[in-house]
Write a structure and sequence with these properties.
Elements (H helix, E strand, L loop, with lengths): L22 H9 L14 H10 L8 E4 L9 H6 L4 E6 L2 E6 L18 E5 L2 E2 L24 E8 L4 H14 L3 E7 L8 E9 L17 E4 L2 H4 L2 H4 L8 E5 L7 H4 L7 H12 L3 E4 L1 H9 L5 H11 L7 H11 L3 H16 L1 H8 L9 H15 L2 H13 L5 H12 L4 H8 L2 H6 L2 E2 L3 E6 L16 E3 L3 H10 L15 H20 L8 H9 L8 H23 L4 H6 L1
Parallel strand pairs: 6-9, 9-10, 10-11
Antiparallel strand pairs: 1-4, 2-3, 4-13, 5-12, 6-8, 7-8, 13-14
Helix pairs in contact: 4-11, 9-10, 9-12, 10-12, 11-12, 12-13, 14-15, 14-16, 15-16, 16-20, 16-21, 17-19, 21-22
């Protein structure tokens, strides 16, 4: 983060200055001081920094955060530490991991405080721009524009920091250029990136036709939905009326703040879409504007302009094409990109099948059970050796068919614990992974907390340190030393975390040897829960320690239930 300059000479003597990382420690100290005390926390709002950077009035550090998803455990500690919605979920065959949404990242770098070695900062990195010329947009017939009877009421929804207000301003200016009247109000609540934003915009032929700006219940003629969650919320649904309202909605799952607190949080996207379709019937259109913007324009920030283009092509906006183009040019921000985004949005609703093909390109292929087992066995062979993979297959083969997948997932997770050798091996591929997302001459810095170096940070956790590109040489050496793993010659085998990881493997093997012969309809649910329990043990260092303690309690409950023959307690534990 770019730290604000403070002129310490302007402060009275006796004032103490502390790094931001020590806030909790300072608060704990002040808690014990009687009377009134004051803490000044100096930091420019991250969303405001983003706005200033766009205007060129605030430094934009040549630094980006990248997560190696192979190293990531999906523990969610980065979200807990940063409370940042630019940390987004990535679904993989090995479970949910994390990635950084480069389009919305505000570069405050607080995510680096997460206790995880998967984070790498990149200097000289420029987000890859897609070859937009690859999509040759056809000439599209212009729609019949709706007539304005009194006022035409537009509601624009989205999340803060993504240009929702800009879309409203462009439409209002376009109406003015067309000789129409426009009244707009922003209902954004807290000025928070990621918070819900509603724009109410009334268009009329004459100014005197606009009496109130706020759109009343059931009076929306057009809804431009930049975010599915906000658009399907009760506040927006109440403005819609079947037979009157038409809507175009970005179907992309834009993560909410709940994900920073609940690592398993999933948006009920299907239910939200059904709610909109139930209200609007066939007058609701959906497409993944965020993914289209990222793939075709190189930046998801253009998604709202895509939705505007789609709504206009649907004949929901009573403003001419020439006026909208002129308003975008007058706005002056990323003119070429916004004009292109508007045109892509028009194309997306005119050719929905072709647009869907582009957004579906990255959908992973569903694997069969045998493919899932083979995938994990091959990874274990690379992790250690073929004998290690055979050990995995032997236990999975002993599981009854309905439980093979649960055993394969749980056992693999324990066997493939990420020690110094494995983190080093996986990070040797970080450069290639980063180059798939970024252009430029990348300089990588790794943020690690090697147990052998010791030391505590301000938060009481093991201290994280930055390591430059030179550490890749060390990674290469460590990766080649993986054969020492678990042997008497293992220089890291004495560490408490490594001893616990080996003990968990032995414990799991003993548990499965005991419970797999006991599988029956009353016990199957509890046995499955026990087989999958290791998947809850994620993270590194203190994060993993806490997960191990919690899993130990759950294991005891599940074993008791299984040994009791599948009592109601087994269902509760599951």
């Amino acid at each position: 983060d770019e730290k604000e300059d403070l002129d310490r000479g302007r402060f009275p003597s006796g004032i103490a200055f502390h790094p931001r990382e020590e806030l909790l420690k300072v608060e704990e100290k002040f808690r014990d001081i009687s009377g009134v005390s004051v803490i000044l926390y100096v930091q420019t709002c991250a969303a405001e920094k983003r706005r200033r950077r766009k205007r060129g009035t605030f430094p934009d550090p040549d630094r980006r955060v990248f997560i190696n998803t192979d190293v990531c455990e999906g523990c969610g500690d980065c979200g807990v530490q940063s409370n940042c919605v630019s940390i987004v979920p990535v679904e993989t065959e090995l479970g949910r991991k994390r990635a950084i949404d480069q389009s919305s990242c505000n570069k405050d770098f607080s995510c680096l405080n997460g206790f995880c070695p998967s984070f790498v900062t990149l200097e000289g990195a420029k987000v890859k721009k897609a070859a937009t010329a690859a999509l040759d947009l056809p000439d599209l017939a212009e729609p019949a524009l709706p007539a304005i009877a009194g006022t035409h009421n537009v509601v624009i929804t989205g999340v803060g920091g993504t240009g929702v207000v800009t879309v409203g301003a462009v439409l209002a200016m376009a109406a003015h250029l067309d000789g129409k009247a426009a009244g707009m109000m922003e209902m954004a609540g807290l000025a928070q990136k990621g918070g819900a934003v509603h724009i109410h915009l009334r268009l009329a032929e004459r100014p005197q036709d606009i009496n109130a700006i706020r759109v009343a219940v059931g009076e929306a003629d057009c809804v431009i939905g930049g975010d599915l969650v906000v658009t399907a919320g009760a506040k927006t649904l109440g403005l819609m009326r079947q037979g009157r309202t038409g809507a175009v909605v970005n179907s992309h799952e834009i993560i909410t703040g709940e994900f920073t607190r609940n690592r398993e949080f999933r948006l009920p996207s299907g239910q939200m879409r059904l709610a909109l379709e139930a209200r609007l019937k066939d007058r609701a259109a959906f497409f993944d504007a965020t993914d289209l913007a990222a793939k075709l324009l190189g930046d998801a920030i253009y998604s709202n302009m895509l939705v505007l283009g789609a709504a206009w092509q649907k004949g929901l906006v009573p403003v001419s094409l020439a006026a909208i183009r002129a308003a975008i040019e007058m706005n002056g921000a990323a003119v070429a990109g916004n004009l292109r985004a508007f045109d892509i949005g028009r194309w997306a609703v005119a050719h929905p099948e072709q647009a869907a093909e582009i957004t579906a390109e990255d959908d992973p292929k569903a694997l069969t059970l045998q493919e899932k087992i083979d995938f994990r066995a091959n990874r274990l062979a690379a992790y250690q050796d073929r004998a290690y993979a055979d050990r995995f297959r032997a236990l999975v083969d002993r599981a009854p068919e309905p439980l093979k997948e649960a055993v394969a997932k749980g056992y693999h997770h324990l066997l493939a614990y990420k020690d110094e050798y494995e983190v080093a091996r996986l990070h040797l591929e970080t450069a290639d992974k980063a180059k798939a997302e970024f252009d430029g001459d990348l300089r990588m810095t790794f943020h690690l907390a090697p147990p052998v170096l010791g030391g505590k940070g301000p938060d009481g956790r093991p201290r994280k340190r930055a390591f430059g590109p030179w550490v890749l040489t060390l990674f290469g050496v460590l990766a080649r030393m993986k054969g020492l793993r678990g042997t008497v010659l293992d220089p890291f085998g004495w560490l408490p975390e490594r001893r616990v990881e080996r003990a968990l493997i032995a414990q799991y093997e003993a548990d499965m040897a005991e419970v797999l012969p006991l599988v029956a309809p009353p016990t199957e649910g509890a046995v499955r829960a026990l087989a999958e329990l290791p998947l809850a043990i994620r993270g590194f260092g203190p994060v993993k320690d806490a997960a191990v303690e919690k899993a130990a309690r759950q294991r005891a409950e599940l074993l008791a239930a299984i040994r009791a023959g599948g009592t109601p307690q087994a269902q509760a534990a599951e």
